[in-house]
Design goal:
- This protein is of the alpha+beta class.
- The chain has one domain.
- It is built from 4 helices and 6 strands; from the N terminus they run βααββαββαβ.
- It has a two-stranded antiparallel sheet with strand order 1-4. The chain has a two-stranded antiparallel sheet with strand order 2-3.
- α1 packs antiparallel against α2 and α2 packs antiparallel against α3.
- The relative contact order is 0.24.
Amino acid sequence: MVKVQLGELKGIIEGLEEIGSVKLPVKTAYWVGKLARLVMKEFQDFEEGRMKLLKEFAQLGQDGAPVIENNSYVLSDAGGFAKAYTDLATVEVEFDMRPFALEQFGDVDVSPMALVKLNKFITEDAG
């Protein structure tokens, strides 16, 4: 089991995208793909929650619709939104997967930042 906070999912997705763009051993590629699907599902749910919060705390125009300026919601209560968003982003979710052993990736060329973003899913030993 690997636990992560919802707010960490975007970085994990970025790390998975980089690792997924290189040729991996077949078994590792399978499990990375499975993890990517699970993480994307959680991220979509998180984004739906974030959008609900944006609409809840948005300033409403005369037509009753949220006011959007420069492709961003105008908030009527930025502090309230920030607190609610933090509460949402710190929710922990569990992924029913064991961390990958670093050796499972073979000699692939990935950036250290990708490994940092995936640190909860990668361990140094096969143990």
